[in-house]
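Handout, section B. The chain below has 425 residues.
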Amino acid sequence: MSYVEKNTYFGRIGASYRYHYMEKSLPEPERSKFKELPFTADLFLKDNQSPEAQNNIRRALEAKSLHARIVVDVCSDARSAAEPLFDTMGPQVASLNSVAGSAPIERTAYVLNHEGVGQIFVLSHFDSQALTPDESPEGCGGRTVKKHLSHGSVSEEERDLPIMKYVDSNVISSDVFLQPWERAKLIAKYAPDKHILVGTVDHRTGLIIPMGYVWAGGKGAYTSVPLHDIRDTKLMYPDGYPQSLKLEEIPEIFRPALIDNQNKVKRKLKEDPTFREKMGTQRPCFVVVRDSIIGARLRYPNLMGGMNKAFSIFAPYHKERNINGGVYITRTQEDLETVLSQLQYPIIEGLKAKPGEAFDQTSVVVFESNLFYLAKELADAAMDEEWFKAWYRQKKDGKPRDIFVGVVRSGRTTAMYNYEELLKQ
């Protein structure tokens, strides 16, 4: 049995996937130029320098200066991308992506507690076309794995996979509400002055369903059903769909973003009646590992803009002071292992994918950081893994796969390199 055949459990029990989609933000003829070109370092630089990207970056930095940034803690799934959830407020979003929205909170506290952050959304996601009455809706592979691990229906060999160990240690619950709810309560300890909305995203439509909130300063919490009933799935999901708070029950601070999200959903479904079907399958072209708070979808709108285009993993770093009082940035071994464990999921799925299946379109991995050596460190660590090397050597449609290493500062890509070319130097 091959390495790939032995390591496909995560995909077997994850959500169903069917289609690949790229949302338009430029006229189709202009966007098609990006689709048809081979992936090169210059293509990323050109996209980052486009008027749309520069406008996104400018607005993102303005939001930070106005203390209006919205941090969205969400799954890495390409169909639950944070920025495209909103109609006009996307550039205000700073997304923290991890498998099932589960990365260690203490490693991202510097983002959550930043003075530029005005509010925090903690969101799970689900498939509204796969509902069962009285049960928590599914659709997130990470939560589904957690469910099977909790029930003991995973072999010892499968439990040894890094991605399985990561899910077992970091995903709190398989429940679509309890996972973000328990996480929000932990976030409140690290960011006590921030208001936190808790909910889930119907990734078939992009609609955010608000289910609760945690008020800043420990001044209370509120949920769509009484707090003592939140573990009762018959009350939480009587028809399979999550119970939502009414808009008038939600604090004013959250309402503009929720209304903006509703406007986006209405517009998108009107423009594309087949949108729901297209969101059934996770088939991103890109996997992006990044530490930039301004997400790749804002920085590369023509390559990665919209839903189902990029699977994103946030890679935190650590600042330390040397004996002279200077600051240097590093990434701990624990941080590297956390990132690599999550990266294993899309890569192994891409290795075994047949046409039309999950991650069958994944052909490019981008490692980014605000310092070159940190970005290359991520790429080097990935290339030390047999599963990543197997993916890299496997040709896609007769063409080699691509790995890029980029430097991003304040949303602007200052350098981008093809990893293969770096190895030749």
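Note. The chain has 19 helices and 13 strands. Compare this with the example in section A.
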